[in-house]
Amino acid sequence: MMESSGSVPPNLYPIGIGIFFRLREIAVWTVCPQLSEIGRFVTITANLGAGQLRTEKLERIATSLFRAFVEIPFVQKTISKNNRTKVRCGGFHPAQDVFILGIDLHRIAEGELELRKIGQWTLAICLIAALLTGCASGKGNGGEATGGAAPEKKQSLVIWTLQQADVNIQEAQENAAKSFEEKFNAEVQITAFPYDQLKSKLLPAVAGDEGPDVLLLDQIWIAQYAAANYIVPLGDYLNGSSIKAEDYFDGAWGAGSYQNKVYAIPFDVGVWGVLYYNKDMFKAAGLDPEKPPVTWDEFLQYGEKLTKDGKYGTSNWAGSSESVQCLVDAFTVAAGGKLLDESGKKILINEEPGVKALQFWADMNKISPPGSVGKNEEDAMTLFTSGQTAMTIYGEWGQDTIKTRAPNMNYGVANLPKPEGGESIGTFGGFNLAINANSKNKELAWEFIQYSTNHENQKNITMLTPAHKQAAKEYLEEKRQFPDVIYQQLTTATYRPNVANYPAIADLQLQATQKVMIGEMSAKDALQEAADKINALLNK
After folding, report:
1. How far apart are CA 138 and CA 133, in angstroms?
2. N or C terminus: which one in the chain shows less Cβ crowding within 10 Å?
3. pLDDT digits (tens, 9 = 90+) for 277-286
4. What DSSP assignment string belongs to 119-177?
C-alpha cells in the first residue's frame, strides 16, 4: 500500500514548484499564488495519495494538459486513454491504472518505466506549467501550498432548499451562505420552496439535466435519485475528507446510502418518535408521573387505567400519513426484526417481529377514541394537547406544538415503549445533501456540503435536529426539554428501506395496517398479503 505524503518536503521549491518522487509515487507541489487550469493540475496531484483528487477534475484538466503538451508523446498517449472507466482516484491500487500528470503508476510498479525518464517528463511539464501560469519564486520553507486558494474567477452555486418558518434559521442560513461565498470566492444562489413544491419541482428538473448543484433530499427520495443516476456517489469525495461517518447518527448516515454506496450526507434529522405523557392525568389515575411506561405491555396497561370518564389512554391512527409506517417499522426492528433482506429484494415485515409490531399498534384501539383508523398524527397530537388523551407518540419537534397549544401542560417525554427484552427504537426522518450529476461545479458543491454539515454550522442552520452527533447534543441541550431522552432515541433510530420505489411499498404497508385496525384481516394475513405484493415490486 502506498503511503501518501502529508506535507511538502523542504528545500524543493525551484521556480515555485517542488518535485518529490519514489517508487509507486510521484507528488508535485506548487506555491504559485495564482494558478491557471494547468497550474491547478500541478497542485491537485499533491493530494492523490490522500484520496482528495476527483475523477471529474482530473478528466477536465487532463484535457487542458493534452492541448498544452501535445508535443510530448507519452503525455499524449496516456491522456488519450484517460476516461471514466480508466481513471481511479483516491490512492494507489496495484490492479488499477492511476494517472499523475499522465504517468501510469501501474506501469511503474511493473517496472516498465524508468524513474529517471519519468522525472524528466514530470519536471518538463511542471516547468512549462510554471511559465504559463506566471509563477514567481517560491515562498521558501515557510510558504503554503495553494491547493485551497480561491480561484480568481468567481464560481456560481445553485441550491434549492425548504422555506423556513423560523426567521432565525433563515437568517443563519443566509449568513452561512455569505461566509461561504467569501471563503471560496463564489456566488451562492439559494431558492426556498415549501416541501410539496420542492418535491414536485426537483425531480423533473434533474431529470431534464437541470436543477440545482446541491440537492436537499428527503431521506426517502435518495434511493430513487441514486437509482436514476441523478446524483453522484460520494466515495471519492469522502476519501481524505473531514466528513466521517462516525460523527453522524448511524441511521441518518445509512439513509444516505444506496446499494452500498454513499450518495448523500446527513443534514438534519427527526425521529418517529418519542412518548409524550400528561403527568397530571397520570396522577389522577393513580400512576406515578415520574415513571412512564417502558414496555408494550406496560403502555397498554397504563392506557387502560387512563381510559375513563370520556378520556382515553392514547390515540393511534392509520390515515393517509406515512408516519404510522415509521412507527410500525420501528417496533418491528425493536422486536428484533429487519425490514429487508441483505439483497434488498425481499421484504421481511411478514415475519414474527413484524406481526407482533403491527398487532401492538392495533391493540391500542381499545385505549383510543372511536374512529382512530381515519385519523393522522396531527389529529392525535390535537387530542393530546386538548387533554382528551393522556399519551401520544410524536416527533421530538412536538415540544414546539405543546408550547403553542398548551403552554401550561405538565408533561413528560420518554423513549418509545419496547417489547419485553427488546430495545427502544425509532425511525429517522430528515434531509440529506447530495450533488447533482449534471452540476458543472461538483467540486464547489462538495465544499458546500462539507461546510453545511460540519459541527459548528449545523448547530445554527438546520431545520430539525442536526445530524452531526456533537452538534445535536449541543442543540438539544439549548433548545429542547428532556434532551437526553431525545438524544438516546436518535442514537438508536433506524431508517426506512433504501429502495427506489419506497413510496409504493409504504402505501402497501399502510393498507395492511388499515385492514388490521378495522378488523378486516389478522396482522399475519395482512402482512403476508402486503409482502407478496411488495416482493413483486422489488423484483421488477
Report:
1. 13
2. C
3. 999 999 999 9
4. HHHHHHHHHHHHHHHT------TT----TTSPPSSPEEEEEEEE--S-HHHHHHHHHHH
